[in-house]
Specification:
Blueprint (H helix, E strand, L loop, with lengths): L6 H18 L4 H9 L8 H10 L4 H10 L11
């Protein structure tokens, strides 16, 4: 079966998932940018975070640092 039917679908699902988790955590893009610095991504800004999530494409390092910044101990593929 697979996670998604296309790379575009996967990008959209990941972006939507990150935005939902931000909302659940009551964090803004600026908050996330600041938290990402604590997890090794010091160059992120509110604008860069917003752009990545709008595009839906970002490196795995961004995703993993975001998961850490949101304090999510476990992420299941089914969650995305």
């Amino acid at each position: 079966m697979g996670l998604a039917k296309s790379e575009e679908e996967l990008a959209d699902r990941l972006s939507t998932w990150v935005k939902a988790e931000l909302k659940r955590a009551k964090m803004t893009y600026a908050d996330l940018a600041n938290a990402l610095a604590e997890h090794g991504l010091e160059g992120e800004t509110e604008h860069s975070v917003k752009s990545k999530l709008k595009r839906g494409t970002f490196p795995a390092t961004f995703l993993m640092a975001t998961v850490a910044a949101l304090g999510l101990p476990h992420v299941a593929v089914e969650d995305v």
